[in-house]
Design brief:
The chain is an alpha+beta fold. It contains one helix and five strands, in the order βββββα.
């Protein structure tokens, strides 16, 4: 299962955005699916493409969900060791 990455747009040039992942890594992502994105927006990335714009308040909710999902996977893995 692939989860989209959360990032913030720091620059846009042509059909690509420079985005900063929450861990601090800076990467380039295609804006082909979401051509109207703007600097400062939070977005979801999947396979090098911006797939959705999200509100800043959604970021915290999504991080909580990712944390809960990770904990659930760890418990599941521990049962199969």
């Amino acid at each position: 299962m692939c989860l989209p990455l959360i990032a913030r747009i720091v620059a846009i040039e042509d059909e690509y955005a420079t985005v900063e992942l929450l861990e601090g890594e800076v990467v380039r992502a295609s804006t082909a699916i979401q051509p109207d994105v703007a600097v400062g927006q939070y977005v979801l990335l999947d396979r090098g493409m911006i797939i959705e714009v999200i509100d800043a308040d959604q970021v915290e909710e999504m991080l909580q969900f990712y944390t809960e999902l990770t904990e659930m996977w760890e418990k599941e893995d521990a049962l199969h060791v």
